[in-house]
Amino acid sequence: MFEQADALLLARIQFAFTVSFHFFFPAFTIGLASYLAVLEGLWLKTGKALYMDLYKFWLKIFAISFAMGVVSGIVMSYQFGTNWSVYSDIAGPVIGPLMAYEVLTAFFLEAGFLGVMLFGMNRVGKKLHFAATCMVAGGTFLSAFWILSVNSWMQTPTGFEIGANGQMLPAGSWIDIIFNPSFPYRLVHTVLAAYLTTAFIVGGVGAFHLLRERADRRRGIAGEPNMHARKMFSMAMWMAALVVPVQIVAGDYHGLNTLEHQPQKVMAMEGHYNSYPDGAPLYLFGIPNDEEQRLDYAVGIPKLSSLILKHDLDAPMAGLDTIPDDEQPPTAIVFWSFRIMVALGFAMLGVGLWSLVARWRGKLYDWAWLHRAAVVMSPSGLAAVLAGWITTEVGRQPYVVYGALRTADAASPLSASAVGASLVAFVVIYFTVFGAGVWYILKLMGKPPHSGETGVKRGDRGPIRTAGIAPGLSHNQGDNGQVGVLAEPAE
C-alpha cells in the first residue's frame, strides 16, 4: 500500500506522530512535578492534611503520566538511528553529548528519587521525602533544559564547524552550542507553557468536581462542600491569572528573536507573501496560497504587524517574495498553527481574568459558567503546546538543522514500504497502549479528591522473590508443615 508513497514524507509523518504523543506527557509532568512540590511544601509549612490529600491524589496521576512520557520518549531516540541515520551521523558530534547530558543529569536524578517520592512517604523523614519530590521536579526541568537546548541548536545552530568527513563538529566553547541564540527564549516560553498546561488541567478537574457537587445539591443529595476541589481550583486560577500575562510577554520576546534569526518562519506565521516598505498588516484570517504566493480572503489590521514586531507602525517588513521558493516553509500549516496557539493563549487569559473578577466578588466557587469554561479549557494547554511545536518545527523547513542540513538530505535510505509499515505499527500500538493509559488517568481524575487519600501503593504481595528468604521478613509454620514467608503489609 506504500509502494507509490514518498519515504521521506512518511518518515516525517512518523516522527511528527510519535513526538506529538510524547510531547503531551512532559508538558503535563513538568508542571505537575512542581505542583506536587508546592503541595508538599505547603503541607510541611501549615500542617493541613488537605494539602497532603491533594498531593496523594495527583501523585497517582503523575506516576502514570511520567511512565508514559518515558516510554514514548525512548521510541523517538530509536528513530534517529532508523529513519534519520544520516542526520545522526552528520549532527551526532554536537547533539549526542547534549542528549547524553540529559540522561546523566535529568533522567538519573528523576530515576534516583522517583521511588522515594512514590513509595517512601512512610519510610523516610518528611523533609527527606520533600527533598525527593523537589529533586524529581528539578529533574523534569533539567530534562526540558537539555532537550530544548538540542532543539534550539537545530533552530539556531552556532559553535560548530564542518569537518573533513562532512560532520558537524564542536568548535570552541560548548557554551556557544548549549546557549545558542534562541535557547533562552524557547526555554522560558516552553517551561511556562508546561506550567500553564498543568494549571488548566488541575483547574478543569477542580471545576468538574465543583459542578458535580452543584448537581448533587440540586438532586437533594446533602453533603459538605468539597474543600479539596475548591483548593485545587483556586490554586489553578491563581496560576492562570498571574502566569498567562507573563507567558504572552515571553512569547513576544521569543517572536522577536525568531524574526532576527529565522525571518522566513515569521513571514509564514504572519502570512506575509509580499514585502511591505511602509508598515505590514496583521492578518487575522486568510487562506495561504503557496502556488500563487498570496493570502486569499485576507482580513487584517493595517500596520499592526510592524508595530508588534518592530514597535513602529511604519517599519518596513520583508516578505516571502525575498526568499527563494525552495527555502520557504509550508506557509498554510505555520500560519494556522500559530493562530491556534495565540487564540488559545488569549482564551486562557480570559479565563484567568474572569477568575479574578469572581474571586474579587467572592463567587469563585459559585459561578457555574466559570467552572464550565474551566472544564472546556482543561486541555487547552496541551493543544497550545502542540500548535506551538508545529509552528516551530514546520516553520524551520526545509531544514532539519537550520541553514546547514536539509531535511531531505538527513533521512535514511529506506524504502517507503519499510517506513510505512513501522508507521502503521506505531499508530496501532500508540492508540492502544497510550489510549488505555489516558483512559485510566481520566478515570482517576473523575474520582473526587477526599480526606485520607492513599496515594501510590505497592502490590499486596510485594516484589516477586525467585529464591531464598529476604532478611527482615517474618516466617510462619503452615498446616502442611512447610515454612511460608509473609511479606510486610503493603501501605
TrEMBL record:
The keyword Calcium does not apply. Keywords: Cell membrane, Electron transport, Heme, Iron, Membrane, Metal-binding, Transmembrane, Transmembrane helix, Transport. One of its GO terms (molecular function) is oxidoreductase activity, acting on diphenols and related substances as donors, oxygen as acceptor. It comes from the Bacteria. One of its GO terms (cellular component) is plasma membrane. It is a multi-pass membrane protein. InterPro entries: Cyt-d_ubiquinol_oxidase_su_1. One of its GO terms (biological process) is aerobic electron transport chain. The keyword Iron applies. It is found in: Cell inner membrane; Cell membrane. Residues 467-491 are annotated as: Disordered. The chain crosses the membrane at residues 15-36, 57-78, 98-121, 128-148, 192-211, 232-250, 333-357, 369-390, 419-442. Belongs to the cytochrome ubiquinol oxidase subunit 1 family. This is Cytochrome D ubiquinol oxidase subunit I. The lineage of its organism: Bacteria, Pseudomonadati, Pseudomonadota, Alphaproteobacteria, Sphingomonadales.
